[in-house]
Amino acid sequence: MKRFLFMLASLASLASFSGCALVGADSAGKLLLQVDDMSTGAAQTRPAIAEVNGQPALLFATQDNRVVFQLGDKRQLLDESAPVRGGNRFQLQPQEQQLHALWWSHQDAKNLYFTSSADGGKGFAPVSIVNDNHGVLAPFSLLRAPGGVLGMTYQDERLPRYQAFFNRSTDYGRSWARPDVRLDLPDGSLSTNVHEPQSVESGNAWVTAWVDAVRVSGKLSYRILSRHSEDSGLRWSPQEVLFTSDKLISSLMVRAQGNDIVIAADEHERGILAFASKDQGRSWRGTGLLAGTEGMSNSGAQLALAGERAHLVWMQEHEGTKARVMRASLNIADAQWLGAAQRLDTKANDNTRSMVPVIMAVTKGPLLASWVDYRDIRANIYLSASFDQGQTWSAPQPLLKPGEVSAGWPKLVPWGNQAAIGYDVYPSEDLLKGKFVLILLPLVEGAKALPEFAAQPIVDEAERKARLLQRVKTLWQNRVEGNYEPTYDVFDFAYKAATPKKTYLESVGVITYQSFSIDDVAIAGNEASVKMKIRYEVKTTPLASGKSLTLVPADVEAINTWVWVGKEWYLVYSPSFGQPNLKY
């Protein structure tokens, strides 16, 4: 019955798809696709995106947790022939005339699921299970070779802790070898602790790398290791230890372009380092630590190769600071960093965070980077570009009109010689019930600057301060008069999304405000601090215990935080206990 209802809902959504109102795409980009029923709000739910014969192709899970392939405005369920419904961590990969779709599910022992289309996405083969009869975990990497040969590497948990495994198909993924093959070679023990295995195609070679933790002479050591195969996974080279540390190694990232391969990772407390190969992983050179990353928390690294350079973006935090987006470049031939780490999300005021950066090299175009930025308080998608191989980057600019709608999880996608960007929008502030938008970025070949994507409202500082003072006075005058209904609308959007107006009105009125005055106002970007004196009392109020509560008039000082969203100020609701709903 549930499946029947889902099919009816799918048909209804297809019938009304072209009539859906575009949400959060007030930008110069051309709309390619909008999906209103996609599961959103998390890294693992991000859709796989590809261009197929000029049309957008998406692989994703619906909010009812069904795996859907959508080509243009046509949909089909891909998990009908799978042992389980739903999944996440989606990939779409072309190979010759085939289009491969793969995903992972934690249900029924944690498996990797695979299917392929030979007709451009019109129909798909029955779903196959990649791994042997054991639970596997992300990340997983698909490798391709001529004649329908495929390889897959993944993290496995069949033994205590984790291992790296590999499997192979010779029929475009319709069937997979049994048993699969272990890639990490244990030193005297069957059990190892492998993390972040990733693999790439480099020329005619397949190259894999991972991080592990081993105990040597009673002490824990962390290593980066690699192996390569020159016969499409039939034989693998001995594992090579590229790096050993007494500190945790994380945020591993592996990328290839032609014969060039770059591996980047973070060594805890010491900083980011990288290794480069010019010969398909047969030999490696280390860069040493990147200046400006020592003593920091570096995470979420993304890597792009273009020409003779590799370009890295990541999140960086330090005690007492908001998360920021950083960038760096290295020369692949001599494995040298081209200067210290630099900030990418440059801001006039450093009081908001930036998150989840992505980077891509556009064919015959610039380097593009995008991330989620809270400088507008309501999360927005920001972009920057480099037209000189990463030496300089354009000033960050918003994709969407600031303050219009919350957005998240940008994803840059090649689109011919141009680029598209996909992202979530959350009209109701519910991350699990967002919508997905895919637009074509209006990049002009040969241009040396990004176009303006969204108009930004311009209000001078004097006007903004005047509006803030008036907003504060109106709010507190209403409170003194006991007129609470209009005060609800003054609170920030996150509080209002979590608290219905009826609930708010039922909770106020116990305190009687008698007077107020504004002592000081300090504005820093889109955040303001207002210092006030307030006189209040609590009149006799019956308690549930049968007793009553009374507080005589008292004078207090209070500091309220206000935020500028779009073109108005809003009060950040701060509960007596706990943290505000609004995070920026």
Description:
The chain is mainly beta. The strands form 9 sheets. Strands 22, 23, 24, 25 and 26 form a 5-stranded antiparallel beta sheet that branches. A hairpin with a 3-residue loop joins strand 10 and strand 11. Among the domains are: 1-24 and 35-129, no CATH class; 461-571, Nuclear Transport Factor 2, Chain: A, CATH 3.10.450. The two termini are 43 Å apart.
How do the helices and strands line up, and which of them pair or pack?
Layout: H1 2-16, E1 30-35, E2 48-52, E3 55-61, E4 67-71, E5 74-77, E6 88-95, E7 98-105, E8 111-117, E9 128-129, E10 136-145, E11 149-156, E12 163-169, E13 181-182, E14 194-202, E15 205-216, E16 219-229, E17 240-245, E18 249-257, E19 260-267, E20 271-277, E21 285-286, E22 297-306, E23 309-317, E24 324-331, E25 336-337, E26 342-343, E27 354-361, E28 367-373, E29 380-386, E30 397-398, E31 406-415, E32 418-426, E33 435-440, H2 461-480, H3 493-498, H4 501-507, E34 511-524, E35 527-542, E36 548-565, E37 568-571
Antiparallel strand pairs: 1-33, 2-3, 3-4, 4-5, 6-7, 7-8, 8-9, 10-11, 11-12, 12-13, 14-15, 15-16, 16-17, 18-19, 19-20, 20-21, 22-23, 23-24, 24-25, 24-26, 27-28, 28-29, 29-30, 31-32, 32-33, 34-35, 35-36, 36-37
Short note summarizing the structure:
The chain is mainly beta and 584 residues long.
Q: Helix count?
A: 4
* Beta-strand share of residues: over 45%
- Find the count of extended strands (DSSP E, 2+ residues): 37
State the end-to-end distance: 43 Å
Spans of at least 5 consecutive residues whose pLDDT stays below 50 are: 1-20
Largest sheet report: 5 strands, antiparallel
Structural class: mainly beta
Rg: 27 Å
Give the helix level as a range of percent.
Answer: under 10%
Q: Please state the average pLDDT score.
A: 92
Shape: elongated
